[in-house]
């Protein structure tokens, strides 16, 4: 089921500062900020060749990363995103195995315009997992 690592996501309290650090200090290629109101975040991607780093800043009230940043005010690793060929088949297989899919269980459109789902971190050793249809 599991395909490539699409990205590693870091929640950051100040996206402009994080972009400057990746672009200027680390010399990385960083995309322009993209607001995703449906997900409550503003996002950029850092291209590192074999995968991407997603930098997330809260957007609006009730952002799903606000509580994470309350616990980790300097920022930190928020989730891993793996590619799957068929997200609905993956969801059904995971649910049949007892894994919990977050939200209403239906895929949302992610930052790449493709369907995504999130899996409960308690089912995967404390790591939030995003699945993206490849
Ligand atoms: Co992500």
TrEMBL record:
<dbReference type="InterPro" id="IPR051785">
    <property type="entry name" value="MMCE/EMCE_epimerase"/>
</dbReference>
<keyword id="KW-0479">Metal-binding</keyword>
<dbReference type="Pfam" id="PF13669">
    <property type="entry name" value="Glyoxalase_4"/>
</dbReference>
<protein>
    <recommendedName>
        <fullName>methylmalonyl-CoA epimerase</fullName>
        <ecNumber>5.1.99.1</ecNumber>
    </recommendedName>
</protein>
<keyword id="KW-0170">Cobalt</keyword>
<dbReference type="GO" id="GO:0046491">
    <property type="term" value="P:L-methylmalonyl-CoA metabolic process"/>
</dbReference>
<comment type="similarity">
    <text>Belongs to the methylmalonyl-CoA epimerase family.</text>
</comment>
<feature type="domain" description="VOC">
    <location>
        <begin position="4"/>
        <end position="134"/>
    </location>
</feature>
<dbReference type="GO" id="GO:0046872">
    <property type="term" value="F:metal ion binding"/>
</dbReference>
<dbReference type="InterPro" id="IPR037523">
    <property type="entry name" value="VOC_core"/>
</dbReference>
<keyword id="KW-0413">Isomerase</keyword>
<dbReference type="InterPro" id="IPR029068">
    <property type="entry name" value="Glyas_Bleomycin-R_OHBP_Dase"/>
</dbReference>
<dbReference type="GO" id="GO:0004493">
    <property type="term" value="F:methylmalonyl-CoA epimerase activity"/>
</dbReference>
<dbReference type="InterPro" id="IPR017515">
    <property type="entry name" value="MeMalonyl-CoA_epimerase"/>
</dbReference>
């Amino acid at each position: 089921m599991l395909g490539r690592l699409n990205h590693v996501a870091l929640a950051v309290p100040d996206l402009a500062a994080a972009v400057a650090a990746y672009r200027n200090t680390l010399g990385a290629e960083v995309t322009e900020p993209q607001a995703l109101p449906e997900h409550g975040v503003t996002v950029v991607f850092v291209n590192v060749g074999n995968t991407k780093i997603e930098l997330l800043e809260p957007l609006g009230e009730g952002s799903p990363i606000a509580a994470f940043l309350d616990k980790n005010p300097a920022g930190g690793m928020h989730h891993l995103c793996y590619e799957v060929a068929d997200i609905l088949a993956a969801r059904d297989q995971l649910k049949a195995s007892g894994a919990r899919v977050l939200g209403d269980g239906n895929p949302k459109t992610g930052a790449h315009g493709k369907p995504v789902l999130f899996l409960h971190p308690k089912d995967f050793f404390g790591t939030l997992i995003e699945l993206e249809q490849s």
